Amino acid sequence: MGKENEVKKTPFYNKHVEFGAKIVPFAGFFMPVQYAGIIEEHRRVRETVGVFDVTHMGEFIVKGLSSEKSLNTITINDVSKLAIGQVQYSAMCYPDGGIVDDLLVYRFKDHYMMVVNASNLDKDFNWAKEHLIENVEVENVSDETGLLAVQGPKVYETLQPLTDVKLDEISFYHFVEGKIAGIDMIISRTGYTGEKGFELYHKAADSEYLWDEIFKTGKSFDIQPIGLGARDTLRLEMKYCLYGNDIDKTTNPLEAGLGWITKFDNGEFIGKESLLKIKETGVTRRLIAFEMIDRGIPRHGYKIYIEGKEVGIVTSGTQSPSLNKGIGLGYVSKEHSKIGTELEIESRGRFLKAKIVKPPFVHSKVS
């Protein structure tokens, strides 16, 4: 196996082994799929607090006098609106409007940080290097950065004893630089679960110590490590898009319900011309959320029908631990995308009833 194809271990790998995780290769890393079980881990995050190793995500530092202008060229949201200490959800697009990746942009006093999906790390870095303008540098700091997400209703009680930073003063999608358990880090009020929570960026060398200290303070809340399985069910209950399933180079932000991050009034950006044409003519399909009426679990790739006519395809699906029913996302033709519309999901030759619902499936508690 060549070095470029080598599967890496995150700095939390030994902890995953210690806690009995089922570990599989994912996006170039050995990652935990589950520990105690997906349903139990999912409910732990919804009820008290859980910890996710998300070190596989990619971090790029962007520096230079033209950083803001350059980022506004390669992303579709408006970076100029960011205050120091603020985070922005955005995406990068190809010239035809297809999505390169969705990402976060962090604004610091003298630089920016892009946080990208693990499976797209190399592609995104090359895309950024290729399209950033003169006097702007981009550095990939992913290998030396550890990232731990702590999510759930008891997150403040878990983390506050470990820091002098007043965590309840950090607004959603904002961050501060401070110490937790004596470790320097970026404390970001973000996450992928719909629960209150923080994402902690730190030096990879400090990861195991950080894990141990957080588990000490979280012990009284039955804190648990959470794997990729529950991470997926938690994000799906919130209708958070997953790159490679719900969005990719064949989908555009407008049909994916990401028009709210597509800012046409912030100058030129890659893909703007194509997206303007799509906006003017109207999308032909939409990403919808649906709940199963019949018993059954929708899966990626299942076809969607209305009255025997194929109208779309499932992009994500699961059995919701919170609702105890099947839920999913999928693209359907625009004329069939209204809330309340009844659908049929083809599952192994059977046609199971479902209906389009208003997302999220579960009420968000982030604010």
Q: What is Rg?
A: 21 Å
Q: For this structure, what is the CATH class of the largest domain? A: Alpha Beta
CATH superfamily name of the largest domain? Probable tRNA modification gtpase trme, domain 1
CATH topology-level fold name of the largest domain: Gyrase A, domain 2
Specify the structural class: alpha+beta
Number of strands: 20
- The global form is globular
CATH architecture title of the largest domain:
2-Layer Sandwich
Strand portion? 25-35%
Largest sheet: 6 strands, mixed
Description:
The protein is an alpha+beta fold and 367 residues long. 19% of the residues lie in helices and 34% in strands. The strands form four sheets. The protein has a six-stranded mixed sheet with strand order 11-12-13-10-4-14, with helices on both faces. Strands 15-18-17-16-19-20 form a six-stranded antiparallel beta barrel. Strands 6-7-8-5-9 form a five-stranded antiparallel sheet, with helices on one face. The mean pLDDT is 96.
Sequence-ordered SSE layout with sheet pairings:
Layout: E1 8-9, H1 13-18, E2 22-26, E3 29-34, H2 38-47, E4 50-53, E5 58-63, H3 67-74, E6 87-93, E7 99-107, E8 112-116, H4 121-131, E9 137-140, E10 145-151, H5 155-159, E11 175-180, E12 183-188, E13 197-203, H6 207-217, E14 224-226, H7 228-237, H8 272-281, E15 285-292, E16 303-306, E17 309-320, E18 325-333, E19 342-347, E20 350-357
Parallel strand pairs: 1-3, 4-14
Antiparallel strand pairs: 2-3, 4-10, 5-8, 5-9, 6-7, 7-8, 10-13, 11-12, 12-13, 15-18, 15-20, 16-17, 16-19, 17-18, 19-20
Helix pairs in contact: 2-7
